[in-house]
Design brief:
single chain, alpha+beta, Trna Endonuclease, Chain: A, domain 1, 5-stranded mixed sheet, two-stranded antiparallel sheet, 5 helices, 9 strands, about 25% strand
Length: about 180
């Protein structure tokens, strides 16, 4: 008689996306020759990894996604709306608050699993907080957005007629890392 051990569902939950993204990012930085330290504990502030080479230390905030986007500034909208109630939703205010929270020695590593088979590497992007903020400000015809994504806006949306695209030069590479840490 075979005993059923678990009722485990084979789903790629947000928890699993985060764990996988962090592990893949750490592996890719190690492949470039960086020493990688992982912060212990869930939901650490500002960064997940510290990478170093020679005497240089860089904090890395890793964000994983399996739906095409990374929600970044929505947690600041309420406060931004209170500061400027005439401009609701105040995406630009929320983006500024988000940007002010991140230091200049932090880089973002965005890991995208959407449309990737288990045998394929996810697409990985690297950007400075300032670059991310600029992208978010340009979204939806300059109205701004809380989510970084590759997206074409459908009819009946504020951004109709535009498409958001993460810059190609953000794709993870040795050259991109050198641009960010110079």
């Amino acid at each position: 008689m075979t005993k059923k051990i678990s009722n485990h569902k084979n789903e790629f939950s947000s928890y699993h996306v985060g764990v996988a993204a962090e592990a893949i990012a750490a592996g890719q930085f190690a492949r470039l020759g960086y020493n990688v330290s992982v912060q212990y504990g869930a939901n650490q502030p500002e960064y997940d990894l510290v990478i170093s080479i020679e005497d240089m230390l860089v904090k890395v905030s890793v964000k994983g996604s399996n739906d095409g986007g990374w929600g970044l500034t929505q947690g600041f909208l309420k406060e931004a709306n209170l500061q400027n109630p005439k401009l609701t939703p105040n995406h630009h205010g929320a983006i500024k608050m988000w940007l002010d929270k991140h230091g200049s020695k932090t880089i973002f590593c965005f890991v995208q699993f959407l449309d990737k088979k288990i045998s394929e590497m996810p697409t990985i992007y690297l950007a400075s907080p300032k670059e991310v903020a600029e992208q978010l400000r340009k979204a939806r015809k300059g109205i701004g957005d809380t989510v970084l994504r590759n997206h074409t806006w459908p009819k009946n949306s504020v951004g109709y007629g535009t498409s958001e695209k993460i810059p190609d030069n953000w794709i993870f590479s040795e050259k991109r890392m050198k641009e960010l840490i110079k």
